[in-house]
Amino acid sequence: MLKKCLVTMTLLVGFSSVAQDLRFHQNRLIVKVNEGASLPHSELIESAKHFFKNTYIVRTQNLSQLERELKTDTSIASVNRDYYANREALPAAVDTEKVAPGFNKMSTSFNDPALRKLWAFKSPQEGGMGVLNAYENYDPSHSSEVIVAVVDTGVDYNHEDLKDVMWTNPGEIPGNGIDDDQNGYIDDIHGINTLVRDADGNATMDISDGHSHGTHVSGTIAAKQNNGVGIAGVASNVKIMGIRTVPNSSDETDVDVAEAFLYAAKNGARIINCSFGKSHNEGGMLVKDTIDHIGSEYGVLVVAAAGNSTQNIDTKLTYPASFESESLLVVASTSKWKRLSMFSNYGKKNVDVAAPGSGIYSTTPGNRYSNMSGTSMASPNTAGVAAELLSRNPNLNVYELKELLMRSVFKSRSYASKTSTGGLVDLGRAVTE
Fold first, then answer.
1. Residue-wise pLDDT tens digits, 45-69
2. In-domain check, residue 12
3. Residue 3: is its pLDDT beyond 80?
4. Strand (E) or helix (H) holding 65
5. Is 376 a known active-site residue?
6. Residue 113 lies in a domain
7. Are residues 64 and 207 in the same domain?
């Protein structure tokens, strides 16, 4: 405990000059009440949304005054502002192209024409995740469907390789302007958009991807296999729930992230891919508490990118990757040369596994395909492996799933000092265990 406190103090000193410049949402506060207490009444509270347990998100037009008022109330455990992550460039699409339909002759398991570009499907000895090995003589028709939430820049849900794997809310009637399933969201057919809110502060439903990052992530996990189109995703029986929470220039907020995670968990997602992060944490633990909550209450595993700053996140923390949680799996990036990508963060304590993330070929908007590089790409490769394992073993709980992913890695000296497991995610080995 003392060690952790010292690390926190170091961070506060290291970021003291930066903290003054951190931006926060001008109309939202994160409020925790004490055990057994209720959110106090105040004329300054415009509306309040209960997230979970004793945590509320409060909307106000006078943030500073309400903040002072709540901090003096004995029923309040904590009050925190909703900070932005800060703007930064997301991985960019390279060599974007269309892929002619057809059938490849490389594999007996997949007929998708661009399969040859998926080096992550190769054996671990060749730098990949053993995906081809895992599908040899396997009939996926007996597996269970797994919902994977992609919390990102949105998803092109009409993409030729994604339209058949999109999650569709069974309780919602499209376009009628009614919250048919009474889950708090109107017309959330394929997911929600926390970046665009209505007059009451509610998330809306357009998950279209204006960047390409989220569509690329989605294809890596779940592009339709064996359809003679484009590529194949890592997982065979998956539905993608699209949640637009990350702006095109990054800069997501804690409240938007937490709400995205809660929505995913409550609507059936068992795995959440989190290809984003920030280098500061302002004292609030909303995102960590949410990850813990959805793990214990809904059995959800959050798979998170380690970050692309070439730094040790055991000492120079980044979030959510550096949070300690039993339902969080953190992923570093590797290259086809069988070593850590030059940009990848690492950490013997805070990074769990490594996975292919350099030069990953996947779907981009408008029925196109391209390469991207980043731990943003390593995370969905791992999420795809997790989804496939859960699909074949639906009775695994979140902690067993995480343990299996970590136990079955392909160990290498290249990753021994960079991750807690010292190894590369290995679907081929995992399915045999």
1. 999 999 999 999 999 999 999 999 9
2. no
3. no
4. helix 63-71
5. yes
6. yes
7. no
